[in-house]
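Quiz preparation item.
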């Protein structure tokens, strides 16, 4: 497919300068087409980008990027920005290995001032840029673009609070589409809704103005009271009083798809001294009917048919870990009335939407507020309930202190269901969940598990519910399960016990989570060369099955550990600590996992293969340990089906 005639001419934002409004409208159409086509092939964040086409065109028409700085919150809506800032030729590589990132990335372009991926950081970063500008005596505009969903996070308010107090020139654009991934929730969302739509506002305003004009100027005490009354009534006249009270000038709301209005508002906003909040109302998925109809489904989507909007699903794929988690939790909640579920704005992503449907009163969507979610769970657990906090590994990073301080220190029985543990694929380094074992393992009182397949996930969920003496976490990966047979009444597992799946005397593979399947394949491959390699499903990262691990270490003396996690501080690290502590000196250990650098984007299978987290990779590692490289080279080169 060829690029549109207008888009083809845009090599930098400067090329927008000569375009009339009607030409910009045509360009907007071409941009939408390009984004729909590309995302339909590569997957990506479709609806958020379709919603900001006009806003991005207006921003790049009025501001002068990269001199003026635009900070995109989350950054999932930066595709239009990428197309306008010299990257249209590479746009079709977006989210592929070695291609453009699906998020702003400073290494990619000077127009991507701040790299993002997690929400609600933009106001703080933009304020930092603005303060640096002031201190260095420079002169440029700084603008943060933040969604109404991202505004539900405490961090956004920390930024607003600080910016309003400091009073420097800063433009915050609130892109209000009433949606987070799911419909936005909370009191703030209702407040924005009133600002957007309340017809009573116009009437109240007219009535109050009429009354104020009628109040005569009379002397003494009466005047003072009347003045006070006038002051209080004025509050009802000021739209966005919440933001005004924080020290911002509130402008809007304006139509985020009306280019002349947007450009006019941006020009005016730049003239105002101090921090300004421009409230822009947009439609998520604008211009592509399937996405306008189902903005949540098209928020982030895999490949789909651009004509019908239907997903391109592979046939015969087992249910995902997420789905099995959601279904099992509902099943268990039928019998146990004290189970409650908490999500930070990701009901469908975590599978908790199933609990929400079945037991709406036992489900809490707290908005994009991972820290609050964890402390809320602490409160619920203190009062005797069994909260299950379902958060993606990467976003749980936000709540580290709450886990330590509010949950683990008092030893509360909160269950952490950590989805997307391991590399997630195309979303890249901001989204890979490869640090959770490291940041949870060292917290006293924490129990940490990873299931080898979806049936074991069921058992681990029951194990977690039976474990009422302290916090417990289970982490599982993104995507389809291994095809294991699910059970109706899953049984709990003994805490701290691993599973010896295959005996062997030449070496042992200690595998964690779904790496177990790959370890079994590797052992099978090694057996064809006459090597007997044991395979252990670790199940627990904490407590480790000391007995079994030590026994293997002392007998086979060669261990490969395998985890979909950073090598430092993870499962293999825990094994090394154990061996050191127990004085095992004659066991060689090789840890397979990610090195001390951020893992880039690419399909999950590609990333696992790149990092030797495949049967062939494990064979190669065993070969290195056994110093049999020649004999095993052919085997590790085979790559075996299951990468
Ligand atoms: C800390 C964190 N939690 C959760 C997410 C997942 N997430 C990505 S976008 C999004 C919704 C953002 O909504 P909004 O800011 O309104 O932007 P929109 O997509 O509606 O344009 C969520 C929850 C994230 N990126 N970062």
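Solution:
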């Amino acid at each position: 497919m060829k690029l549109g005639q207008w888009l083809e001419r845009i090599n930098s934002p400067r090329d927008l300068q000569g375009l009339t409004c009607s030409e910009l409208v045509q360009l907007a159409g071409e941009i939408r087409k390009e984004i729909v086509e590309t995302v339909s092939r590569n997957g990506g964040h479709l609806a958020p980008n379709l919603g900001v086409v006009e806003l991005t065109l207006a921003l790049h028409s009025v501001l002068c990027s990269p001199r003026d700085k635009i900070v995109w919150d989350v950054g999932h809506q930066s595709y239009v920005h990428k197309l306008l800032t010299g990257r249209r030729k590479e746009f079709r590589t977006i989210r592929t290995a070695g291609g453009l990132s699906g998020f702003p990335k400073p290494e990619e372009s000077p127009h991507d001032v701040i790299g993002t991926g997690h929400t609600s950081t933009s106001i703080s970063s933009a304020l930092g840029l603005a303060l640096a500008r002031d201190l260095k005596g420079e002169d440029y505009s700084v603008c943060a673009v933040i969604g109404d969903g991202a505004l539900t996070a405490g961090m956004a308010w920390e930024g607003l609070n600080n910016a309003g107090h400091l009073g420097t020139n800063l433009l915050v654009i609130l892109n209000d589409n009433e949606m987070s991934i799911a419909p936005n929730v909370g009191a703030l969302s209702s407040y924005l809704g009133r600002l957007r739509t309340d017809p009573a506002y116009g009437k109240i305003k007219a009535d109050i103005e009429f009354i104020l004009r009628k109040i005569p100027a009379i002397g003494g005490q009466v005047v003072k009271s009347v003045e006070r009354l006038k002051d209080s009534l004025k509050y009802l006249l000021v739209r966005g009083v919440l933001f005004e009270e924080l020290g911002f000038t509130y402008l809007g709301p304006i139509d985020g798809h009306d280019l002349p209005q947007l450009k006019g508002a941006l020009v005016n906003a730049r003239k105002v001294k101090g921090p300004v909040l421009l409230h822009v109302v947009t439609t998520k998925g604008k211009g592509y009917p399937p996405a306008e109809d189902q903005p949540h489904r098209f928020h982030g989507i895999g490949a789909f048919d651009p004509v019908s909007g239907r997903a391109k699903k592979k046939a015969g794929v087992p249910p995902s870990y997420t789905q099995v988690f959601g279904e099992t939790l509902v099943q268990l909640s039928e019998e146990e009335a004290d189970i409650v579920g908490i999500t930070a704005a990701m009901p469908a992503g975590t599978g908790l939407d199933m609990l929400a449907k079945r037991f709406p009163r036992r489900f809490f969507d707290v908005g994009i507020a991972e820290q609050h979610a964890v402390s809320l769970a602490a409160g619920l657990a203190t009062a005797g309930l069994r909260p299950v906090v379902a958060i993606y590994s990467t976003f749980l990073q936000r709540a580290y202190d709450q886990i330590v301080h509010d949950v683990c220190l008092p030893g509360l029985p909160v269950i952490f269901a950590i989805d997307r543990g391991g590399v997630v694929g195309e979303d890249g380094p901001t989204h890979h969940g490869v640090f959770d074992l490291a940041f949870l393992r060292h917290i006293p009182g924490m129990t940490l598990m990873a299931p080898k397949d979806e049936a074991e996930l069921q058992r681990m969920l029951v194990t977690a519910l039976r474990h009422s003496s302290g916090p417990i976490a289970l982490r599982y990966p993104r995507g389809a399960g291994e095809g294991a047979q699910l059970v109706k009444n899953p049984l709990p597992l003994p805490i701290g016990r691993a599973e010896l799946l295959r005996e062997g005397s030449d070496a042992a593979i200690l595998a964690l989570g779904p790496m177990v399947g790959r370890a079994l394949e590797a052992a099978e491959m090694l057996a064809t060369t006459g090597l007997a390699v044991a395979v252990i499903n670790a199940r627990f990262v904490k407590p480790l099955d000391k007995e079994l691990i030590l026994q293997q270490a002392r007998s086979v003396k060669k261990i490969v550990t395998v985890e979909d996690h950073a090598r430092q501080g993870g499962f293999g690290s825990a094994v090394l600590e154990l061996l050191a502590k127990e004085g095992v000196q004659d066991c060689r250990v090789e840890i397979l996992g990610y090195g001390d650098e951020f893992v880039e984007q690419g399909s999950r299978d590609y990333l696992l293969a790149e990092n030797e987290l495949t049967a062939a990779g494990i064979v190669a590692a065993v070969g290195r340990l056994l110093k049999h490289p020649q004999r095993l080279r052919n085997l590790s080169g085979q790559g075996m089906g299951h990468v």
